[in-house]
Amino acid sequence: MSKFRIPEDFLWGGAISANQAEGAYRENGRGISNIDLIPHGISRMDVKLGKVPNPVLDKNAYYPSHEAIDFYHHYKEDLALMGELGLKVFRTSISWSRLFPRGDEEQPNLEGIAFYRNVFKECRKYGMEPLVTLCHFDIPEGLIRTYGSWRNRKVIDCFIRYAKVCFREFSGLVKYWLTFNEINIVLHSPFSGAGIAFEEGENRNQVIYQAAHHMLVASALAVKAAHEQDPEIKIGCMLAGGSFYPYSCNPKDVWESVKKEQENLFFIDVQVRGHYPSYAGRMFEEKKVSLKIEDGDLEALRYTVDFISFSYYASRCVSADMENKTANDGNVVRSVKNPWLQTSQWGWAIDPLGLRTTMNQLYDRYQKPLFIVENGLGSKDEIAEDGTIQDDYRIDYLKQHIGAMKEAMEDGVELMGYIVWSCIDLVSASTGEMSKRYGFVYVDRDDEGKGSLQRRKKKSFYWYQKVIKDNGEYL
């Protein structure tokens, strides 16, 4: 175990997202978002993957995001718990459709602004820095229906209008911002990641990468707008992280891992370096992609991020012969089962050393500050007869990953902070389940949306409280 001492200004935190926690999906002027159209159950994955060209609400289906854990009405109670936990930073997101119900209005919904201002003030009350994501798998339905979501460059202007309102209205309350959550997930889950659905016969790669180009331009222009609003703002990108291991030392497997790393880091290469990477030309050619790049786009990309944030749950493993290997079905990112690693109850590889590897690779590549903004274990939690929740498995997972994080920092990696996903149970983005629990706080809600919504602290709550108090010395 590393003897490294974490700096005193290190940002220990916990995270939620609007679409997984807030609920209140039609209250006080909020419009519907893409996530509100993704049901629980057997059709969920087809909608997430963009296989349903025009998803609509089905009165017979259950949509977990519509009520979620009702953070909208419980935020004071929940943030008081986070203050008790001792968080230095509270990561959340803004529901774009709560501020701009259709997405293309000229003026924002004032009730939406008031809600978030109250949330951020409450964070400040407990000494927590808000870290806010502008677009956490969240795009208004109106932009999907009217423009086809990010496939249309008109959405860039809508996003920048939204971003500028956020920077202006929450000036002095929010110092840390992210543009897009796990921007690379558009490759793997296009509708949940970016509101992209496909018509029959479309070139999927062409649609995705043209949409990605628009998102990258929008992200860069948001960075520009943030710094113009307040030079003290720190604004970052966000990657669904995790290294791609070759399944074997067969050179073909190694080369496959190199290609997958490039594909995964493509977005961050642009957001950090300010231009398309050298390998993009051949990648686009092989994927039959021809980007439509308009005047000013490439110049806009030069507005680069201040830091690199990423999620880390698991490493990935790839082979040149994926079809004849046992797949790891637990994650939306396609992977071969790694024989050297154990998996969670949902099939995600548990690989603490992989976090150290990922941190070193990212820092060696970019030399910009890193920020771990999601790391955690989804698991079924049981309430004991005495009312306690003894989630030692979660403590063990986090303990190992924080240890690996400290080793990477001792390696010389510059790290701003560590944020656990999640500080409170919420709807799983991947499966839509409540039973896939991540939090330090248990929420009485089941996979069908039933329950009292009562909050209850788990054993891990008290453990993480001590970790923060001792600045990572105690594990």
From TrEMBL:
Region forming the signal peptide: none
Active site residues according to the UniProt entry: 374
Assigned keywords, A-Z: Glycosidase, Hydrolase
Top-level taxon in the UniProt lineage: Bacteria
PROSITE patterns: GLYCOSYL_HYDROL_F1_1, GLYCOSYL_HYDROL_F1_2
InterPro entries attached to this UniProt entry: GH, GH_1_N_CS, Glyco_hydro_1, Glyco_hydro_1_AS
SUPFAM superfamilies attached to this UniProt entry: (Trans)glycosidases
NCBIfam families xref list: PRK09593.1 (NF007158), PRK09852.1 (NF007356)
PANTHER family from the UniProt entry: 6-PHOSPHO-BETA-GLUCOSIDASE ASCB-RELATED, GLYCOSYL HYDROLASE
Family: Belongs to the glycosyl hydrolase 1 family.
Protein's name in the database: 6-phospho-beta-glucosidase AscB
